[in-house]
């Protein structure tokens, strides 16, 4: 599993996508690809785009995966450590 500081993670995000709204993540539960923009379009908290399957907010997907409540899926998530030393699990970029 990838472990990064939040600075490294943000830098990788910019290198890959250029525009944060275009950043896409894969749900570890169902494989759905979702972008930050998808969450903005639904008036959802954009920071949930890498923590919750969008299936939590729309009916079509039948998936309610969330890093906050679901088990360890270490190959499909990464661990980000912020300046305060707090660990945040996030979906992988795709
Ligand atoms: Zn899902």
What are the key terms here?
globular; single chain; two-stranded antiparallel sheet; alpha+beta; binds zinc ion
Main sheet: which strands, in order across?
1-4-5
- Range of strand content: 15-25%
Order of helices and strands: EHEEHEE
Note the main sheet: 3 strands, mixed
* Bound compounds: zinc ion
Which secondary-structure class do the elements indicate? alpha+beta
Mean pLDDT: 94
Low-confidence stretches: none
How many distinct domains?
A: 1
How would you explain this protein's 3D organization?
This protein is α+β, with helices and mostly antiparallel strands and 94 residues long. The chain has one domain. The protein contains two helices and five strands. The strands form two sheets. The protein has a three-stranded mixed sheet with strand order 1-4-5. Strands 2-3 form a two-stranded antiparallel ribbon. It starts with a strand and ends with a strand. Bound molecules: zinc ion. Zinc ion is lined by residues 27, 29-30, 32, 53, 55, 61, 63, 65. Residues 27, 29-30, 32, 53, 55, 61, 63, 65 line the site of zinc ion. InterPro entries: VVA0879-like. This is Phage protein. It comes from Laceyella sediminis.
């Amino acid at each position: 599993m990838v472990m990064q500081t939040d600075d490294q993670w943000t830098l990788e995000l910019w290198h890959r996508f250029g525009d944060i709204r275009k950043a896409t993540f894969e749900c570890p539960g169902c494989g759905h690809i979702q972008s930050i923009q998808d969450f903005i379009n639904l008036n959802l908290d954009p920071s949930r785009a890498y923590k919750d399957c969008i299936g939590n907010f729309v009916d079509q997907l039948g998936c309610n995966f969330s890093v906050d409540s679901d088990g360890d899926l270490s190959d499909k998530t990464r661990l980000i450590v912020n300046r305060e030393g707090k660990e945040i699990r996030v979906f992988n970029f795709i």
